[in-house]
Amino acid sequence: MLRTSDSTDRATTPATEEPRTGSAPARLLAQRGLFFGPSALVPEDLYSRVEQGTARRERNRVTLAPGSLVSTNTYFGRFHATYWQRWTDVGEVEVTAVATGTGRLRLMASDTNKVWRIVASVDVEDGKDTAVRLVGPVDRFVDGGGMWVEIRTETGELTVSDVRWTVASARPVPPTDIAITTHNRVDDCLNTLQALARDPEALEHIRTVHVADQGSDPIESRERFAEISAALGERLVYVRQPNLGGAGGFARGMIHATDGSLDQHADVLLMDDDVHLEPELLIRLTAFLASTRHPMIVGAQMLNLLHPGHLHISAEYADPEVLAMGLKMPGALREAYLLGLDDRNLPINQERRVDTEYNGWWSCLIPAAVVREIGYPLPLFLQWDDIEYGYRARAHGFPTVSLPGAGVWHADFGWKDGDEWQRYFTIRNGLIMAALHSGFSIRRITGRLAQLVSHQLVAMQYGMTATLLQAVEDFLNGPEILWDGSAGALARVREIRKAYPETVMHPMSEAGGEFHDRPVVRAANEPGSETLTFLKRVAYHAADRAAYRTGAVPAGDAHWWHVSLFERAIVTDMSEQGYRVRTRDRQEAIQLARRAAHLLRRFVREAPAVAGRFRAEAGRLSSRENWARLYGLDD
Asked: Pfam family of this protein, just one (predicted)?
């Protein structure tokens, strides 16, 4: 294991010059053919399907009984040819395998409408470690489609192993650094590092695994850390630093990857600590990036950790003027059940190519050339930092692709409650994003802020309202609020929220009669007119009337138009791990409403000029020098 020094090399190099590396290999491993996941905690049908008969599936091999059929037309099993044809000059893909027994292997392909065709076929007769080769042209997939392998037996048994998809290599694969940021998620981070250490082939092109530990419970204090450190050897670079959020941890890894002269730079794969890692994504992301026509960001897709058969989203965009992120691109899959079938009984895959506008940093590969050209993340702490960087890259001519088949399991977003301190960064950083990457429509932004405040007040979320108002005030204070890396904002908003009891989640062990003796009141249909419904709820609150004096509200029914019917609501937290108690407080609501009205008037007057100040300071805030200062490395 290596540790970073206390200085940062800030040598500058031309962004257009490419690093010099060795000769390119004749064939590049684009992906391995896997039949089973990294552990039994994920469904094997994400890798291969036994469509007929029986088969024993292992990580790198499958054994079919007589009369069986196994298909890899699955999320991890497909070669997503449409993305390769769109973004690379690869003309064909070669599939090799080792077969023992008797049976048939076919290379299959699909078009944009999931209509399949046979590309190549090989019969094996009483084979013993027989080499199999199938070749498919990557020539009819511009709008969609992919390739996969089908293995069939009739009267004999067949074992297929070591399936490898390779492409001609136009240039060498550059070295890649993995940058992981962690904060008091010791076991999660150690599990991720251990998964890396256990797959040496996936680590082949990885130069460094850089861990920025920002927590008070350091991972190096655990016995497992010593074992993992020994396994990774000099690949592991571990550094402890103050808590500067995800942006601060990732920026540290990006600075390490671009230290020194140009030929010492590495691409950087940003990765969250709390993921269930599929090490195969290292091969797929680095091979795809090494094949693209021009430098671009290549992101892994997110699958839900609690529901591992579900894809969170395959391509997304943001609308910062209404503080909305994670919006689904037209035609993209969202919360898709990848183990299911569509209305034609065909597997659910991202058949049509859908281009994305950014990729989340749960796992995302950024070329060194991009970092040299556009700089480092803004010190936003968390929320919108990855989105801002993706849009900044697009503005400089570097697109992003979210590559199907390169996936990682990450904590489900739908199981995170919105009434947390992170909401401050969602609002404040969203406004900064709007200032930098939108027309900054005052009408749209103030309309959205007013809507959020109104809904939160009638839903008795006074702490959330105070959180939002603080975020808006800090935005209006200008780019100076980012000068400390947002550490001060984190402490401030946590202190503010302590005054509001409904922000506290109570564990079920504290529930007693408070929770169990209250009737559960489910929400009715959504209102036909939100405006009329809101005005009616305001009238009820002003007159101190309520449809229900008290009651329990399930998490999925905690809409503002439903919770506002109560004088006191016991609401299940979205995590399903406890509950919150919301109690009507007319005086608090009036005070917050007056503060909001004053603040929004100020926003209309001052925000355009503030947005200009953020645009003027963005380059300095995202510079190497600024991050070195925040890390205390600028002496």
From this structure: Glyco_tranf_2_3
